Write the structure tokens for this entry.
Amino acid sequence: MKNKRIYLDHASSRPVLKEVFNFAKPYLMKKYGNPSSLYNLGLESQKALEEAREKIRFFINAENSKNIIFTDNATESNNIAIRGTAIRNLNDGKEIISSSIEHMSVINPMKDLQKNGWTYNQIPVDNFGFINYDKLNELLSKKTIVTSIMYANNEIGTIQPIKKISEIVHDKGKYLHVDASAAIGYLPVDVQRDDIDLLTFSSNDIYGPRGAGILYIKPGVKLQSIMPGGGQERGIKSGTENIFSIAGMGEASKIIKNEIKSESERLTIIRNKLIKEISKIDRAFLTGHPKKRLPGHVSFIFNNIEGESILLNMDMYNIQIATGSACSHKTLEPSHVLLEIGLKHEEAHGSMVMTLGKSNNIDQIPLIVKAVNDTVERLRKLSPL
Ligand code: PMP
């Protein structure tokens, strides 16, 4: 008989919370009005939209709900933040910066701008994944329009000191964009405390329905629409709003905000136990920082075996894990994040990433540890290396 599922891949997908689904359900079949329509059915949707905006404002401590733009996902938010500010502020400079371990939805829009004449610099990271502050300082100039540094890394869990980075960026450059996709829900994100200009995440990162994301835009930030149309979302993201997903995301943010502290403490205990046990395996190395890492994040590399095989073997125990970047596994290239923290190609191939969430508990630890031990032992026996 197959074990009960132990799902350990929350960074790539989370189930929608039942309370969230029940809250948002009416917006699919009953309250289906277009928020731009003036009759009651439309106004009802308009109200739901603004209520969700206020919930998200409160969630990240934005100045005003007007500073929240709804998008379809974090990828779209990242694109709008980067292209929108780069293009709008063209006359002030054509320099853009990101860390070298950003998600591809940050790196690729920046590379695109580079092809079109912008100067794009990447900040290297150390072995734990912390950005090199001296290099950042050196590369920043009055012409740097947008600098994008993620709150925490989805593959190695390392949390960047965003407040410190914000101070460095604002000393010379213009805007700091922060991709909070990996951190949101685990850490109390506060855009005013950390002086962030632009911030992004997806609804599913907080157990909301897919198909919604947010872009926070600090008052005064100049940004051009890259999706002109009917003028929805302050003209920055035109197109009829996905009320079901947006209302769900708003409700999810309300629930998650109340739980962040207790849930993070609970997950940290499970995480630490898993790290301790898995570290005992021969030639197993933790990636990312041992302490300054996301509460639910466990990431290792195992020498001489392939991450894809680890993933498939673990699935036989009905345990779902990730290897390298969930979003770029189709390329079979080793993760750029692991190469950037100094691993060799062959080392980076043996990566295993576990991201914990609500369905995980301390009782699952022995089963998980046994499955990892058995998997590594079996694969090493088969390995020609
Ligand atoms: N940024 C980070 C750090 C991510 O991990 C992901 C993927 N979960 C994204 C951006 C893109 O998110 P989405 O696929 O929801 O657009």
Notes: The chain has a mean pLDDT of 95. The domain at 18-257 is CATH 3.40.640.10 (Aspartate Aminotransferase; domain 2).
